[in-house]
Amino acid sequence: MGQIQLERHGGIAVLTVDNPDVKNGLTPEMGLQLSELCDEVDADPAIGAAVVRGAGGTFCSGADRRRWTAGADQAEDRTYKELGAVYTAFRRVGTLQVPTIAAVRGAAVGAGINLALSTDLRVVSQTARLLAGFLRIGLHPGGGYFTISSRTAGREATAAMGLFSEEVDGVRAAEIGLAWKAVPDEQVEDLAMELAGRAAKDPELAREAARSFRTEAGPPGIGWEAALHFERATQMWSQRRRETA
User: Fold this and answer.
1) Under a CB-based contact definition with an 8 Å cutoff, are residues 102 and 119 in contact?
2) pTM score
3) How confident is the model over 82-108, as pLDDT tens digits?
4) Which CATH class is domain 3-198?
5) With CB atoms counted within 10 Å of each terminal CB, which end of the chain scores lower, N or C?
């Protein structure tokens, strides 16, 4: 069973996705745990920034598909709530009171790219693989992907990745604005911590600045919360019609 780990380094909270059997794929339980840990971070006034990372040199391969059942009724109460737990976790990361950075190594796929896009800033490995990947497996995008991607990388990149299944590496991600900087793999987490440390020096100010930033530069088009529900029904339909999990 995977888990989310929380460590504190001075005024920096480090949230680690750890599910090595499936390259850090997210389970509903991990989604719930991530939301709870975000509450814990917000409740600690000494924390002024957060870094989201994956264990073992890879960020997040998406949802843990071992829990999926081909043709299952996606509106069934338990199934609906389990997927909702993962989506709510993205939103919870995105509403952390502190500035947030995703340290992306290895792959960020599907739910993994949503998690990365939930943060304020992304530092990526030059060799990282970033792809939406939904249509590749016969699934409509979810988690508000189109909204949170277009606010970061713009319409063109979002269309390329979300509609046409384009994959980019870290260098290209930085070129198109999907990430702030692409660096050698071994430098990703050090740089993320360095940047987070600047904000963490003054936690109270950092929280106020993060609030203003998101209010002024928030998602375009429909709001993120609306996007979660807007995409949900179509994704449920697409998941049910898949022949295999």
Assistant:
1) yes
2) 0.86
3) 667 888 999 999 999 999 999 999 999
4) alpha beta
5) N
